[in-house]
Amino acid sequence: MPELPEVETVRRRLLTCLPGLVVRDVVVNDPLVSAQSEAELRALLAGRRIAGLRRRGKYLIVDLGAVEGAPGGAPGPGGGPTTAVIHLRMTGQLLFRPAPADRPPRFIWRLDPRTDLAFRDVRRFGRLWAFDPSAEHEFFARMGPEPFGDAFSVAYLRRALEGRRAPLKSFLLDQRRIAGVGNIYADEALFRARLHPLRAAGSVGSREARRLREALLETLQAGIDHEGSSVESFVDPAGQRGSFQEILSVYQRTGEPCRVCGETVRRLEVGGRGTHYCPVCQPRRGGMVRGSRRLRGSPVPPRGGKPPDGAPPRG
Ligand SMILES: [Zn+2]
Q1: CATH number of 205's domain
Q2: Could you tell me the distance, in angstroms and rounded to a whole number, from the CA of residue 277 to the centre of ligand 1?
Q3: Which of 87, 69, 91 lies closest to 78, judged by CA?
Q4: Which of 48, 55, 58, 211 is catalytic?
Q5: What pLDDT score was predicted for residue 58?
Q6: The domain containing residue 19 runs over which residues?
């Protein structure tokens, strides 16, 4: 599933070819791709020049200027600037000048000079939105800070972790706490930080929080440097695969030796998500959460002998 490094890779690639092009038409082949109709999307996108591309968490943002020649560039569907947002979700691929394929893309932006930006998405969870730029703040209102932004400080992370009973793995996946982290980079960052995925988020001390922040930034940066992970279907807009999957430490390496200590990489489920870790490099410490079916029957009591939420132990 595309996470921050994959979406950033898509953004950087599209930056080399999209800005300056005009959206001539919008074709929606799969109405489930947007809550808006093809006609609404056309009204908000067609005739507008692509001005820039940004990213927020796992969302790609396309800035489009007012319809050229429109009276005063009136706002909204009348011809003003538009913000388009695309979420790739599981298998979305944005392809510039796509090669012909059997299955039609879920949507196509026909561009001027003549070329296409096509959205292919086998699992069909990806989404497209288009709205007046004034609505952007509200759209992202609940999203946590960008990992590479100033707001994602050690102090912020400590505050966000404080008192949380959720396992660290689930904490990292929560887009309200940190934007852009998904399953691959969460597992890899926890390995790099030497923190067990089932540690209660609130049990993480200040030195560990600092380590976790650094590990997250290093892991995400490595993902960007390798142009994303093509563990499954990820490709960039030119159809090229990333290479971060070649240097994964734990993610989907169950049963293989840890690259650091040689111990066998294990897998468990945390919050329904497959989670990969090294039991030696990421030892159990105080404040563990029992979040896995596999651990049932062999619970490790957290520090103080009480579950972190103070609730009676579950059978
Ligand atoms: Zn290890």
Answers
A1: 1.10.8.50
A2: 8
A3: 69
A4: 58
A5: 98
A6: 4-139
